[in-house]
Amino acid sequence: MLMMEYDLELQKAAELINNEKAKKVCIQLPDGLKPKAKEMVDFLQAETKAKIFIWAGSCFGACDTPTLPKEFDLLIQWGHSEWKK
């Protein structure tokens, strides 16, 4: 079970998706989490009304944000340091 192995805050991500009323969401994962991507997508789609897509490209840190088509409502990144202002 994914939730027991890692604290990925998937419920928090689902709440964000629902609060934003996002319909099309891209998730970006570091290479070490990509084997868990299907489990993550299954959970998020079960908890929301959104269609979840996985960014399959490389990910080298918080500054490595993909350019997404305009039809995406939200990008959620895992494994990055929080941006501080």
Shape: globular
* Rg over alpha carbons: 12 Å
Pattern of helices and strands: HHEHEE
End-to-end separation? 35 Å
SS field, number of helical segments:
3
What structural class do helix, strand and pairing data support?
alpha/beta
The portion of residues forming beta strands comes to 15-25%
Helix content: 25-40%
Mean pLDDT across all amino acids: 84
**Arrangement of strands in the largest sheet:** 2-1-3
What composes the largest sheet? 3 strands, parallel
Give the uncertain stretches in residue-range form. Answer: none
The counted number of beta strands is 3
Describe what you observe in this structure.
This protein is α/β, with parallel strands linked by helices and 85 residues long. Helix content is 31%, strand content 16%. The chain has a domain at 24-80. It has helices at residues 2-5, 10-20, 37-47, and strands at 24-28, 51-55, 74-77. Strands 2-1-3 form a 3-stranded parallel β-sheet, covered by helices on one side. The chain starts with a helix and ends in an 8-residue tail after the last strand. The mean pLDDT is 84.
